[in-house]
Design a protein that fits this description.
The structure is a single chain. The protein is mainly α. The chain has helices at residues 8-32, 42-90, 104-134, 142-163, 169-172, 174-224, 226-231, 234-251, 260-264, 271-284, 301-306; strands spanning 258-259, 287-290, 297-300. The protein has a three-stranded antiparallel beta sheet with strand order 1-3-2. Strand 2 and strand 3 form a beta hairpin. Helix 2 (42-90) packs antiparallel against helix 6 (174-224) and helix 3 crosses helix 4 (142-163). The model is unreliable at 8-22 and 226-232 (pLDDT under 50).
Length: 307
């Protein structure tokens, strides 16, 4: 017994080690935390505004991508719905009209699009819920998400039960019930997908507009705040200017000629900053400005040389 039971000094030593580990963890947390007194300084408030601006700008880009993906998903669901309805409605015909015989590839196309729409729509709804919550609009589409959870679980369970060998008889009795549940849910898939996708797109678009207002407000605060400008190093300002310049140059990959107002609608750069960046690019010889101030157009310098 004496060999296994710890003595009192051993217990004290073990306790002291535990206390030291907790103290070390507390000390480490204390060193890694920010002093609350520093957060009240003007430069800390300016840095926080810049951080909020970057976070909101990233959320805005994510919302823009989600809004763009809604239409292709909806088109895929509508194609599936068209094939199903076409086949069923065509069966309502006089006896002298031969039955509609669709090519085999339409069946496989419909099955593939239906399979993709199940997972893609569920994933899209989850992504739009996160964006809506980030924009402080609350949870959206929770019932539709649960519908896709149940549908996916029923179809996967039916697949496993159908092809797993040597299952008990009691478990095999669940197969007809799961098949019936899957058929009912698949029948409801198209209308629920159409309604859920369109609703999610509308909510995400509202969130995008709200984030756009917040981004422009924060950008105006950070650019008009002198303390923020003083706290920003020349190297950081140069990096930001180069990033904006690349954003402007990338616009010309989509179109050769741009006006100022058209650029403002496609980039998240304030008007005064964009005008300053365009003037710098013209001075550098990377782009060319033509026309009067109100009707001025911009195009790449390489395009004018080729012309």
């Amino acid at each position: 017994m004496d060999n296994y039971a710890p003595t009192q000094p051993q217990r004290s030593q073990a306790m002291s080690i535990t206390i030291q580990e907790r103290q070390a963890m507390t000390t480490l947390t204390h060193h890694l935390s920010i002093d609350p007194n520093l957060l009240n300084r003007p430069e800390a408030q300016a840095a926080r505004q810049r951080g909020l601006l970057r976070a909101k700008a990233e959320a805005l880009r994510s919302a823009e991508h989600l809004v763009g993906w809604a239409r292709p998903l909806l088109v895929g669901v509508l194609i599936v719905s068209f094939l199903h309805l076409w086949h069923q409605i065509a069966r309502i015909a006089p006896t002298e009209v031969p039955p509609l015989s669709l090519p085999a590839w339409t069946h496989w196309l419909s099955a593939a699009l239906l399979t993709i729409s199940v997972d893609a729509t569920a994933l899209y709804l989850m992504a739009t819920r996160s964006t809506a919550q980030y924009a402080r609009m609350g949870g959206q589409g929770s019932l539709a998400v649960w519908f896709f959870y149940i549908l996916t679980a029923a179809l996967n369970s039916l697949f496993v039960l159908s092809y797993t060998p040597n299952l008990p008889q009691e478990v095999q009795l669940l197969t007809p019930a799961l098949a019936l549940l899957g058929a009912i849910l698949l029948g409801l898939l198209v209308p629920i997908s159409i309604a859920a996708l369109e609703r999610a797109r509308q909510v995400t678009d509202i969130a995008r507009l709200a984030l756009l207002v917040e981004v422009e407000t924060l950008r105006g605060l950070t650019t008009s705040n002198p303390e923020s400008s003083e706290g920003e190093s020349d190297e950081e300002e140069q990096t930001n200017a180069e990033g904006r310049a690349e954003t402007i140059i990338q616009l010309f990959a989509h179109r050769k000629v741009w006006r100022l107002q058209e650029m403002l609608e496609n980039v998240t750069i304030p008007r005064s900053t964009l005008q300053r960046d365009l003037a710098a690019l013209v001075a550098q010889g990377r782009i060319v400005a033509q026309g009067a101030t109100k009707n001025r157009i911009y195009l790449l310098a390489s395009e004018t040389e080729e012309g």
